[in-house]
Design goal:
The chain is mainly α. It folds into two domains: 90 residues, Winged helix-like DNA-binding domain superfamily/Winged helix DNA-binding domain (Arc Repressor Mutant, subunit A, Orthogonal Bundle); 93 residues. It is built from eight helices and three strands, in the order αβααββααααα. A three-stranded antiparallel beta sheet has the order 1-3-2. Strand 2 and strand 3 form a beta hairpin. Helix 1 crosses helix 4. The chain starts with 15 loop residues before the first helix and ends in an 11-residue tail after the last helix.
């Protein structure tokens, strides 16, 4: 196993795009162009970042280093560029299910930018902070409208294949409700701060004492 495994005998470090690629190949060998078209057709480009074919090539290279994917054949059709067809290895079939189980059951391990920014909201003046949150709310509202349009556009698609859109809708609705509450509190002055107030709070909280570094 390569050094990309978390520990000897452990599963290789997973990735969202890697999982999608493994499951596409689970259905049979594919070349990259076909993978990209399937990802777009199935709406998986809404759940993983695959803005360019280069992302797929990079993911496939990593999966090959991990010995989860291998070259199945090279196709040379007249009038078309040479295409490499990829297939799952036995280890790849095992990893596809292991990654799916882990990603469905685990929590945490991710550090979104927005949460980090919210933790330092006081770094902006209250009015500035409210303006940035209002812009975020507008963008989220547009995203929510796009999600709702998916349900209208595919009324006959079984629910099983729209679960990711259901989940996105639930997250967007929850975040929008929270955002609008914070924005209202900022607008009405129920949530506010000043440099003087921040200095007083930081002084009251105090800073941890410096400890001498312990020898290793």
């Amino acid at each position: 196993m390569t050094d990309e495994s978390t520990a000897k005998g452990a599963s290789p470090r997973r990735s969202s795009l890697g999982l999608v690629v493994l499951w596409l190949l689970y259905q049979g060998p594919l070349h990259v162009y076909r993978m990209q078209k399937l990802i777009e057709h199935q709406g998986k480009d809404r759940v993983v970042n695959v803005r360019s074919r280069a992302s797929l090539y990079q993911t496939l290279e990593r999966l090959m280093r991990l010995e989860l994917v291998e070259v199945h054949e090279t196709v040379r059709d007249e009038g078309y560029p040479e295409r490499v067809v990829y297939a799952l290895t036995d280890a790849g079939r095992v990893a596809a299910r292991d990654w799916l189980r882990e990603m469905l059951s685990s929590t945490g391990g991710e550090y979104p930018e927005f949460i980090a920014a919210v933790s330092i909201l006081f770094g902006l003046e209250p009015g500035d902070a409210r303006e940035q949150l209002e812009q975020r709310a507008e963008r989220l509202s547009a995203e929510l409208a796009d999600v709702m349009a998916q349900f209208d556009h595919y009324p006959a698609v079984p629910r099983l294949f729209l679960l990711e859109e259901e989940y996105r809708r639930a997250l967007l609705e929850a975040e929008l409700a929270w955002l609008r509450g914070v924005i209202d509190d900022l607008r009405e002055g129920r949530l506010t701060w000043s440099d003087q107030w921040l200095r007083e709070v930081f002084a009251a909280i105090g800073l941890p004492q410096d400890d001498e570094e312990q020898p290793a």
